[in-house]
Specification:
The protein is of the alpha+beta class. The chain has a domain at about 5-85 and about 125-135: Electron Transport, Fmn-binding Protein, Chain A (Pnp Oxidase, Chain A), CATH 2.30.110. About 25% of the residues lie in helices and about 35% in strands. It is built from 4 helices and 6 strands. A 6-stranded antiparallel beta sheet has the order 2-1-4-5-6-3.
Length: about 140
C-alpha cells in the first residue's frame, strides 16, 4: 500500500474509530473502539473480551473495516484488513497498559490485572492487519 500523508494525519487524530465486522449471515456490525494505534499501515490492536459479538464475528470471518473521519469534509477513511487474536502472553502485557489507561486507580491494588477471574480469563487483543485503504464520501440524507 502506498502511504498517504492525509490518512496518516487523520488516523493519528482519531481517538475513536469504528470497527466493522461480518456475522455468519453476512450482516455487518459496527462498534466504536478506542484507537491507541499510531500507524494505519502497521498492525493495529484493540482490547476486548472473549464473549463479545466482535470476537465471534471475527472467529467466523476475519475481514474487518476500520473507519474514521477524514479532515476532508463529508468524507471518511476505510481501512480494510484481516483480524486475528494475540497470544495470551502478549495479551497480558498489553492489557496492563490498556486497563490502567481506563482505570488509573487500579495500579494501587492491581485489581483486574493479575490472577484468575472471569474478566482476566476472557481478555483478548484483536490484531488488524491492513490490506487496503480508501477515502469514502458520506451519503447525504435526502429530504
Amino acid at each position: 500500500m502506498q502511504r498517504n500523508l492525509d490518512l496518516l494525519t487523520d488516523f493519528k487524530k482519531a481517538k475513536m474509530v469504528n470497527m466493522i465486522t461480518y456475522a455468519k449471515d453476512g450482516s455487518k456490525h459496527v462498534r466504536v473502539m478506542t484507537n491507541y494505534n499510531e500507524d494505519p499501515y502497521d498492525i493495529m490492536w484493540f482490547a476486548t473480551y472473549s464473549y463479545t459479538r466482535k470476537v465471534s464475528d471475527i472467529e467466523s470471518d476475519p475481514r474487518v473495516i476500520i473507519s474514521f473521519a477524514s479532515s476532508n469534509e463529508g468524507k471518511f477513511w476505510e481501512i480494510q484488513g484481516n483480524a486475528s487474536f494475540e497470544k495470551p502472553e502478549v495479551v497480558s502485557q498489553k492489557w496492563v497498559w490498556w486497563y490502567l489507561y481506563w482505570h488509573p486507580e487500579a495500579e494501587k491494588n492491581g485489581w483486574g490485572l493479575k490472577g484468575s477471574s472471569s474478566l482476566v480469563d476472557h481478555r483478548r487483543i484483536i490484531n488488524v492487519k491492513p490490506n487496503s485503504t480508501k477515502l469514502v464520501e458520506v451519503d447525504s440524507p435526502k429530504y
